[in-house]
Design brief:
With about 475 residues, the chain is of the alpha/beta class. It has 17 helices and eleven strands. About 40% of the residues lie in helices and about 15% in strands. The longest helix has 21 residues. The two termini are about 15 Å apart. The structure holds glutamine.
């Protein structure tokens, strides 16, 4: 059962071939057996089994939907009522929220069973899951390699078949890049499509929650459960939620206009195997009737530097709430208030988080604000305009998700700039607020490669349709990592 999609499991549940309690038990057993992956920070067997029983009872009453009884996991950045939400930081090691995040609330209402909270980079800052206070996550395809980040625990959990799906958040690539590196499918929706309420904030103008699963169809089912307006997030957009599965099914690859950005194809430092797989994917889409053409995103190269001004600036402001006074970590025996602030933050945050806070504080300081933050916002606009122009002539944009396959644990841990370059193809999408997804498209040295598809604002249905179409003509998404017993 562990290699089945949500759509397949839903059919099995519907036919009475299995129960949610059975699925949940199986997931809990697999999580325990795969403990060496370190994919979870917290596992909640009792509440999971209680939720599974409730789901089975709802089904017996004829009240089941497409997600009823499906075990899932939440990234440990989503607040969960009564369940520790650490954000993989010592700062929140013992934080137990009194409420659920919107996404958790919605997926619970849709009948999913939450088995626990997945590991991640501390405060979602990273591309390898190595900045976690709870230790690195291993890639199920190669236990010496990283799973990507920051949603690395969610990605590893789905790739290893511990759960059929998990939630993630994506500020600069944190759903798509780990999805690519672990051979699963992951979607970052349009900014404003899914409420950010109850997500520990990193960079508020970029953060967006989305699903991670093993097929585009499953992403559509999960997005249906997650999307919607919510007053508690002022940037959430009040707009009807379409039937994503219907839109997906209605999308035909024939006639679909696919743009390949020249800047992505010619980017330096891209593995030959990655370029080869992306060319093959473009070829496959073309053979299926899509009109594939080259396009240009002239300012794409500015995305990483712009992001590393804007994201740290917003992070430095968001993380100022962790002061050792109201909640979170507090140092032992502070001498005075100043000492309390300094040591609580100094001891509570890890190195990467501190680096971001310092960069962001500097960029926002008087005298530098115009030179850095303001300038970055202007270039951000140029990046957005590139995409707007491109979408005048294409329906989706295709390219690699990440420049390389999963790299060895430790390989980039001491070189922040190399680490930041893992996201050269994903970051521009967040700056522009667009929806984008990653689907498996090949292998290099036995490690998965991801194809990124980017859509126009609120065009998730067609984007999912393009990905689903691709998954009808390829079976990369069906590959599973070798089992280590
Ligand atoms: N890797 C990027 C960073 O470290 C993006 C992280 C994310 O999307 N949360 O900021």
């Amino acid at each position: 059962m562990h290699d089945q999609t949500i759509a397949e499991l839903a059919t099995a549940l519907e036919r009475g071939e299995c129960s949610s309690v059975e699925l949940t038990r199986a997931a809990l057993e697999r999580i325990e057996r795969a403990a060496d992956l370190n994919a979870f920070i917290t596992v909640t067997p009792e509440s999971a089994l209680a939720e599974a029983e409730a789901a089975d009872a709802a089904r017996a009453r004829g009240e089941a939907g497409p997600l009823t009884g499906i075990p899932i996991a939440h990234k440990d950045i989503f607040c969960t009522e009564g369940v520790r939400t650490s954000c993989a930081s010592r700062m929140l090691e013992n934080f137990v929220p009194p409420y659920d995040a919107f996404v958790v609330e919605r997926l619970r209402a849709a009948g999913t069973v939450s088995v626990g909270k997945t590991n991640m980079d501390e405060f979602a800052m990273g591309s390898s899951n190595e900045t976690s206070y709870f230790g690195a996550v291993k890639n199920p395809w190669d236990r010496q390699a990283v799973p990507g980040g920051s949603s690395g625990g969610s990605a590893a959990a789905v790739a290893a078949g511990l759960v059929p799906a998990a939630t993630g958040t994506d500020t600069g690539g944190s759903i798509r890049q780990p999805a690519a590196l672990t051979g699963i499918s992951g979607l970052k929706p349009t900014y404003g499509r899914v409420s950010r309420y109850g997500i520990v904030a990193f960079a508020s103008s970029l953060d967006q929650a989305g699903p991670m699963a093993s097929s585009a169809e499953d992403l559509a089912i999960l997005l249906q459960g997650m999307a919607g307006f919510d007053r508690r997030d002022s940037t959430c957009v009040e707009r009807p939620v379409p039937d994503y599965r219907a839109q997906m099914a209605a999308t035909d690859l024939r006639g679909l206009r696919v743009g390949l950005p020249r800047e992505f194809l010619e980017a330096e430092g891209v593995d030959a195997e990655v370029s080869g797989s992306i060319s093959a994917a473009a070829q496959a889409l073309g053979d299926a009737g899509a009109e594939v053409r080259e396009i240009s995103l002239p300012n794409a190269g500015m995305a990483v530097p712009v992001y590393y001004v804007i994201a740290p600036a917003e992070a430095s402001s968001n993380l100022s709430r962790f002061d050792g006074v109201r909640y979170g970590y507090r140092c032992e025996a502070p001498a005075d208030l100043e000492d309390l602030y300094k040591r609580s933050r100094g001891e509570g945050f890890g190195e990467e988080v501190k680096r971001r806070i310092m960069v962001g504080t500097y960029a926002l300081s008087a005298g530098y604000y115009d030179a850095y933050y303001h300038k970055a916002q202007q270039v951000r606009r140029l990046v957005q305009q590139d995409f707007a122009r491109a979408f005048e002539s294409v329906d989706v944009i295709a390219g690699p998700t990440a420049p390389s396959t999963a790299f060895p644990l430790g390989a980039k841990a001491d070189d922040p700039v190399q680490m930041y370059l893992s996201d050269i193809f994903t970051i521009a999408v967040n700056l522009a607020g667009l929806p984008a997804l990653s689907v498996p498209a090949g292998f290099g040295g036995g490690r998965p490669i991801g194809l990124q598809l980017i859509g126009s604002h609120f065009d998730e249905g067609r984007l999912l349709g393009a990905a689903h179409g691709y998954q009808q003509i390829t079976d990369w998404h069906r590959q599973r990592p070798p089992v280590e017993e």
